[in-house]
## 1
Amino acid sequence: MPVKEKAALLVPSGTYHEPDKKHLHIICSDPDAKGLVVIVGISTYTNDLCDQTCVLQAHEHPWLRHQSFVLYRKAEIVSAAALQARIQSGEVLECDEVNAQTFLRIKKGLCKSPQTKRKVKRYLGC
């Protein structure tokens, strides 16, 4: 699967206690002329201190097991080629795309969230 908007990936994000843990990440843009894309992670919703911009329910993606939220503060602009290399090496795993409605909520949230970095917002034209 090529690196493109709506693609969902499982990216290594383990902790000291769970080094093999992976979190769902969503690619939020197609590669630009420089081959860059925006990617954002999804994390477990634990309390009301989590970013409320885009809260997801377990039924919104097969990988989600419980209520989650989009971790806009860690949104990044990354090289699509580097991401593709990580996929080909098996470090990053591909999974089912996000449905169109959920993806729209995630993408709109990049501009709405107060936690999205300024450089990501500028890149997206927010």
Note: The radius of gyration is 14 Å.
## 2
Amino acid sequence: MFDQHMICEDTVANVAENGAAIGFSFGARLPYYRGLGLSMVEDVAVTLDGEAIPREAVRLTLRGRTWTLDEMENEHGDRWNFGEVATVTVLQDGGLSAGEHRLELAERMRISYLPFVPTTRCVKTISLAA
């Protein structure tokens, strides 16, 4: 539906803690027009330059609150609304190197009236300045 708008390219940045890069982050949108409760977002898979990022290394932040993907499975009180930009953080020592990268985002959603579980994908070439 709105797959091409899932990754917000202009939001890519390294994440630092105590002066050291511990990963990178980017803005992401849910491509489902009604939005969903977080427990209905079954996966937020990230692939960088052809390498799949382990699920355990991915975090999602909405409105100042952060979840692991496992924690999202049991989050019944919060939603990811259509058009709302969440921050996806990938924990990766050293963060993202300068230059161009191929970033893929795949979101698997459980939608009550569909007899299957759709996965939507977006691939963008992103760049991080030196």
Note: The chain has one domain: 3-128.
## 3
Amino acid sequence: TPMEASGIFPPMVVSMVQVGEETGQLPDMLTKVADVFEEEVDNAVAGLTSLLEPVMIVLLALVVGTIVVALFLPLITIIQDLTGGA
């Protein structure tokens, strides 16, 4: 079939469309195909989100740590100057 020859569609989609055409249930089969792909996308997004959250937390911690160090370095320098540069 042209769908198989194009190589764009997975074999599952091609077979479900063929079954839908043969049984006269093409809209229902296309809805099922859409549901399968929607579930795959949802799983991929959930996986990406669970991977991205720890990375964002680490980056935020680095930014906050950098700001804290930038604020305290001048204070430490002033204290050392006042105590005689020990």
Note: DSSP finds three helices and no strands in the chain.
## 4
Amino acid sequence: QIVKLELLKNEQAPQIRSIWEDFHADKDDAVATTLPADEFQSIVKRATAAPYFIFPVYRQEGFFNMLCQFQQSCFLVTYLEAFKEDPSAAPPCVAVTLYDNLLEKKELALVRADVINMLDKKESQLLLQQLLISYQNDKLYDHVNKFNNQPEQFDFEAYRLLLKNVTASETEA
């Protein structure tokens, strides 16, 4: 148990959001956010229909790719190269869990990304942001859907450029 749900159930959504994010702020091995019920339901629906996707992680002058796989309420994230070599042995780097315990009464979902290895907290925070926005934003999700259901039409470079533009405008807002 990560937090005492009984205590959170007595709070309003803004306080829950603050408690959840503050609780994770000083942790080196986890990052967290919250989602309104409608965004949570949309992400789960879309991730069920398109469970795999790749995300760039930038370091120094370049980037490498991470692969995520959605299963039930969790995204497992690993290095794309490790997955290509041996899918069953690819070590998870980040596990993103979607908690729906407060969905019905508070219309709020808790999201936690556990940093297992190979990425630092800042990289994991950015990866979580990219993952969520790629399943929320219609234009980005079009790329996710193509990757899963029409791979011959998927253009990684077009996705990468769109992601940069969308995340830049999100951080400015």
Note: The first helix runs from residue 5 to 8.
